[in-house]
Amino acid sequence: MKTLYVKFIVITIGMMFISFILAFIISNTYYQQKLKPFNDQKNTKVALDIAAFAEQHPEINLHEYLKSISAVGYQMCLVKLGGDRTFFGKPFRDKSMPISTQEYVLKGNVFHGMLHFPQETFVTGFFSNELKNTIGVPLKYQGRTYALFIRPDIKFLFNEMHILFGWILGLAITLTIVMVLINTKYLVKPISNLTKATKSLANGDFTVKLDSKRHDELGELSHSFLWMASKLEQIDEMRKEFISNISHDIQSPLSNIKGYTNLLENESISNEERSHYVSIINGEIRRLSTLTKQLLLLASLDRNEDIIKKKLFNVGGQLKELIRNYQWAVNEKGIMLSYSLPNIEMVGDPSLLNTVWDNLLSNAIKYNKPNGSIEISLDKKGDSVFITFADTGIGMKNTEVERIFERFYRADMARTRTVEGPVGLSIVKTIVDLHGGTINVRSKENEGTAFMVELPIR
Ligand code: ADP
């Protein structure tokens, strides 16, 4: 596996290399355009000065004179008219020089070897220790004509600088590479930590620890990761809670059914008792059936939104019909039910919305107190319909209100033992959401609860 660490280092060093080449090309262009002519000019002046001094002072010894100049950092070649060559200073690596050039200078012309030294040799041409890479000037001494070829002894002049720059460059490159190695480790480490955390999360360990105090993208990522871990933990908790709730919801009717079928097996019971037991068993079967139907509905609502089939219908009429079906339960609990339900038409899925009203009304009855009351109202404002179910029941704590729309949440296991389906309100919320509406709750413990639904008319 190519790690990020290795990639980062390879890229950085690659970039250094490319920058080096670019810098070389740019400085070479500068050398060819500006420095080379300037260098040629400067050395031409030096050569002419040397020649002029020799011409004006015939009393000096020419060879001694040139020797002493070469000692301060010049390489020279003195050509006599016949072609005899004498060298001064450090020897040239390449001493070749066309005869024509020598004659050209002997005739009194200046030879600009530095300026015309091949272009392809880049900056390094400057260092090329060749006789062709010189300035040639004519020199008159004691009436005789010579040609003097001269170039600075680069090695002599720049040796220490050379070493110094070499060291600076070498050190800079080494230090950069070392720093990149260390820095990259520092940058990549949080990512490796994240990978470890991901693995432990996948194994169900939610207690991951990450450094989320960094103020950069990685810190942000760690932060989001921790947030995701806590959400996943919550979901995992809910899943466990769901399994325990569902098992309980399935188990209790099953054990009731089992108990009553055992009783039915006893042949000595009266017909009256028998039919009572059968009706209890039927009730329990109904409970189980409602539970599975609700679970299936929720699953299909989750899977696709196409499940809703909207049409124009009368909500007021639908609510009145529902109340009629619940009248017996209301009467049985001695609850006062009042309503104001004008005929209002809206577009929606009547069957799904009926499930919403059904849940809200059955909860209002279920969680009511003896002799309590329920008030249902329907209203139209602007483009919305407002439906409210208010009861004077047991109410809820604030902490409960926050969670009731969560799937499988149940405020208090003990108090809802005879209830069908732990998923009612989450179905309600899903259906209202699918219709583009909202649902709100206002509740006070021991005083009552009101559910307010707002739905778009169309
Ligand atoms: P279920 O009623 O089957 O437990 P729901 O999803 O319908 O499931 O309701 C979730 C929880 O919300 C209930 O367990 C109950 O604690 C609370 N709740 C719902 N409606 C009311 C209400 N009208 N009054 C008080 N508590 C309510």
TrEMBL record:
Keywords, comma-separated and alphabetical: ATP-binding, Cell membrane, Kinase, Membrane, Nucleotide-binding, Phosphoprotein, Transferase, Transmembrane, Transmembrane helix, Two-component regulatory system, Virulence
Domain named Histidine kinase: residues: 245-458
Localization of this protein: Cell membrane
Catalytic function, reaction form: ATP + protein L-histidine = ADP + protein N-phospho-L-histidine
InterPro entries listed in its UniProt record: HAMP_dom, HATPase_C_sf, HATPase_dom, His_kinase_dom, HisK_dim/P_dom, HisK_dim/P_sf, HssS/ArlS-like, Sig_transdc_His_kin-like_C
A Pfam family: HATPase_c
Ranges where the HAMP domain occurs: 185-237
Primary localisation category: membrane
Any one GO molecular-function label of the UniProt entry: kinase activity
Enzyme Commission code: 2.7.13.3
Mode of membrane association: Multi-pass membrane protein
Keyword Zinc applies: no
Role noted for this protein: Member of the two-component regulatory system HssS/HssR involved in intracellular heme homeostasis and tempering of staphylococcal virulence. HssS functions as a heme sensor histidine kinase which is autophosphorylated at a histidine residue and transfers its phosphate group to an aspartate residue of HssR. HssR/HssS activates the expression of hrtAB, an efflux pump, in response to extracellular heme, hemin, hemoglobin or blood.
Protein name: Heme sensor protein HssS
The species this protein was found in: Neobacillus pocheonensis
